[in-house]
Queue: 3 jobs
Job 1
Amino acid sequence: MRNVTDSAQDTAADEELGRFVERFALLLVDSGIPRMPARVFGSLLIAEEGKRTAGELAELLLVSPAAISGAVRYLVQVGLIVRARDPGERRDHYEVTDDLWYEAYANRDKQLEQWAVLMGEGAKIVGPESKAGARLDQSRQFFDFLRDELPALMGRWREYQREHLGSAGG
């Protein structure tokens, strides 16, 4: 049975977690992610199992189910969370994987390629000798460079995991 002290400690911990989620959300908002998806993402990160139902998220964040629906749709689309259903369950839940940052960046090759191609097309349109053309071509080169370097960087992360975290990941 819980006593009053346990309840006060739980309330203080919940408030501290709530402040963390809001601070984390503000950081994501500053990097261009809309506020509600940022709050949902933070709430999933702090969940012990990394997952919650839409109803749990709405209750936790004190928002409408419609707000959660839009937020999770955005997060699924950008690849930060997945929608899943446990065997025998009737309701979907939304979750972050333990290796979510790796997955978010490792799967960017196609996107980087599209950016590089588009920047190259833009450079040709405005003229490669123009300032705009040089800027667009440098952008193309940057995205090509990232595409070339990303596999080695991700490999170094896996090595770091093996050495420091005792995990091969994935």
Note: The first strand starts at residue 51 and ends at 52.
Job 2
Amino acid sequence: MRSVRQCSRSACARPAVATLTYVYADSTAVLGPLAQLAEPHSYDLCAEHAERLTAPRGWEVVRLLPDFEPAAPSHDDLLALADAVREAGRPAFAVLEPEPVAQPATPDGRRRGHLRVVHGEESVR
């Protein structure tokens, strides 16, 4: 299931549509379509920030796609949504009643608890 990633820019909550990667050896910023997986050394940008991107002086910006638009929902997205709805409708866990445990009785007929007092020589064994 593909998750919706947000723009990496501060205070921007719009969905990401492009991925920005820097190639430091070539002084190049590469702006391309949104990567399948989020990488720690790349930045996801919304359409507005992708369009307004500028590079530092002496750097070149390579744009792999001229227009960045949010991707339309795919067949996989619809299946993932249906699975999520199905999962949400299931009970979180089955409630089972514990079966009563028979307690052994003492010779005088009283129930015996799980703790008992051990006297003298019995405690040495």
Note: The longest strand covers residues 18-23.
Job 3
Amino acid sequence: MKTNTLIIGALALSLSFSACQNKASKTETDHSDMDSNDMDMDSMSMSSGMKSGMDKMMNDMHQMKMTGNIDNDYAMNMKNHHQAAVDMAQAELESGKDDDLKKMAQKIIDAQKSEINELQSFLDNHKNPEKNYDPAMKEKGFAKVMDQNMTMMMDMPKMDQSSSTDKHFVQMMIPHHQSAIMMAEGFVQFGKDPGLISMSRKIIADQKMEIDQFKKWSE
């Protein structure tokens, strides 16, 4: 009888120890899953500002009603284009780690907010512009430039969700700048307003320089 009691006690202790081990193992697994989920959430959070900026720009450009005036249509599109750059740069400031990239982001915000104000001022002073091109004639002239630019934006690379905010910023800003340069170069060729043409030349020079800086960072 005493022997049976000892056996039963030992068996209970063994089962209790086994249960504790299983519980600990499960806890470790749960923590591992939680860490993995946290990393996924961090990656999603880091990319959300970049993606939302691009999505808003594309939506605004798709919904924009062209006036048929080269200067006005350029000003409207470049204003939205600049706003996307500002939004992405702001996401870099908030979540990025690289000091050099954050300095570039702040520079982009300052420069492009200033140009956004200039573009808006131009639009405010040109409410009923005279038509000087057909936006539907996408085979030539400024309409072709705008169509090619839209196609380029649609073909921008998808963000690598496993990358950092810094890499997302560089990954998105290079083609975004290239698109702005394409549009600005087209406007220099077909645009009419001297002030906007001067701004476009500055956009081309500034953003080509920034593309070189982004590429050097990526090396």
Note: The chain has six helices and no strands.
